[in-house]
């Protein structure tokens, strides 16, 4: 036991340092290939859709040319299926040579030259979820390899890890290995998601090692998926909300806006609610072909400002009243983001009235406040006082997002 104490101290110090890796002070923003492009490896049949150097260079060009970078979307991230099926003769991971002819180093240079950062993917077990080589037994080497390529973010999946002990140990060891490289690398984990079916995650510990972490199932391009993520988050908000903050965030998974499955109102809901939840904003869509409406929503400065608020507090559901949900998120400068979500999937728009005294434990509008609507369209609601109530009209499965600032 006595011998274990210095070791424990060293581990704790290292863990604290991992948290203070200087990155993700606000939720990271970028693009991640998975939801839209999955594991496309046949570049002969599908040259523009396969997971390849071309996909990422084209996406980097668009991100730099069409306002995405300026809006804050900085990390261009590779998900699963980038690697060759085997390691090289020195045991290092390598990109599939046919699909990434210049390797990851050249791609990183290309991405950096456009003012963006590059993310990559690996897995704590001996295989990734899609069956490519995992990092088990190679944590130090893989961290060094990623750093030597100029990688800025690692998404570390939790498939095929063998046991809960190996899962936790692997997530810790990769965090320390990344730290040791000296390169600031955002560390994106799925540790609590893989742990939860068997064990209640220890979020205090997870935050010491990870910059953000997935808690729940993969997002799909559907309203059902968005709805279930929101409901799950609200049901677990007592343990999730308090842990989020600069350097460590709950990750409800990618934005699927601009794809096929969400109506306009549902896309508004995803954008508004991901801002309320202080979620990392990783779009998974085809930026080369995206509607002007989806682009307007994803680049909306006021919603992004809420998501990126420097106070870094995650929002929560205040009430669920029949089919209406009222959420709020405390912001810097005595302000609150407020969302009214209408869950009914039949009929038309409905009004929801609520007293401003409900917000911020009575403080948001005390003695008065200004109210601004941000989504679905911007609108000034003027000055209100503590006893005022507000009535907003919300479309089925839509959300009205407001910014309420105390005066
Ligand atoms: C898991 C993750 C997804 C994605 C796939 C890739 O399902 O949760 O986000 O990375 O693996 O195989």
UniProtKB/TrEMBL annotation:
<dbReference type="InterPro" id="IPR013780">
    <property type="entry name" value="Glyco_hydro_b"/>
</dbReference>
<keyword id="KW-1015">Disulfide bond</keyword>
<keyword id="KW-0458">Lysosome</keyword>
<keyword id="KW-0378">Hydrolase</keyword>
<keyword id="KW-0325">Glycoprotein</keyword>
<dbReference type="Pfam" id="PF17450">
    <property type="entry name" value="Melibiase_2_C"/>
</dbReference>
<dbReference type="InterPro" id="IPR013785">
    <property type="entry name" value="Aldolase_TIM"/>
</dbReference>
<dbReference type="GO" id="GO:0016020">
    <property type="term" value="C:membrane"/>
</dbReference>
<dbReference type="GO" id="GO:0009311">
    <property type="term" value="P:oligosaccharide metabolic process"/>
</dbReference>
<keyword id="KW-0326">Glycosidase</keyword>
<dbReference type="Pfam" id="PF16499">
    <property type="entry name" value="Melibiase_2"/>
</dbReference>
<comment type="function">
    <text>Catalyzes the hydrolysis of glycosphingolipids and participates in their degradation in the lysosome.</text>
</comment>
<feature type="domain" description="Alpha galactosidase A C-terminal">
    <location>
        <begin position="312"/>
        <end position="398"/>
    </location>
</feature>
<feature type="signal peptide">
    <location>
        <begin position="1"/>
        <end position="18"/>
    </location>
</feature>
<dbReference type="GO" id="GO:0005764">
    <property type="term" value="C:lysosome"/>
</dbReference>
<comment type="similarity">
    <text>Belongs to the glycosyl hydrolase 27 family.</text>
</comment>
<dbReference type="GO" id="GO:0005576">
    <property type="term" value="C:extracellular region"/>
</dbReference>
<keyword id="KW-0443">Lipid metabolism</keyword>
<comment type="subunit">
    <text>Homodimer.</text>
</comment>
<dbReference type="GO" id="GO:0046479">
    <property type="term" value="P:glycosphingolipid catabolic process"/>
</dbReference>
<keyword id="KW-0732">Signal</keyword>
<dbReference type="InterPro" id="IPR035373">
    <property type="entry name" value="Melibiase/NAGA_C"/>
</dbReference>
<dbReference type="InterPro" id="IPR017853">
    <property type="entry name" value="GH"/>
</dbReference>
<dbReference type="GO" id="GO:0016139">
    <property type="term" value="P:glycoside catabolic process"/>
</dbReference>
<dbReference type="GO" id="GO:0004557">
    <property type="term" value="F:alpha-galactosidase activity"/>
</dbReference>
<dbReference type="InterPro" id="IPR002241">
    <property type="entry name" value="Glyco_hydro_27"/>
</dbReference>
<protein>
    <recommendedName>
        <fullName>Alpha-galactosidase</fullName>
        <ecNumber>3.2.1.-</ecNumber>
    </recommendedName>
</protein>
<dbReference type="InterPro" id="IPR000111">
    <property type="entry name" value="Glyco_hydro_27/36_CS"/>
</dbReference>
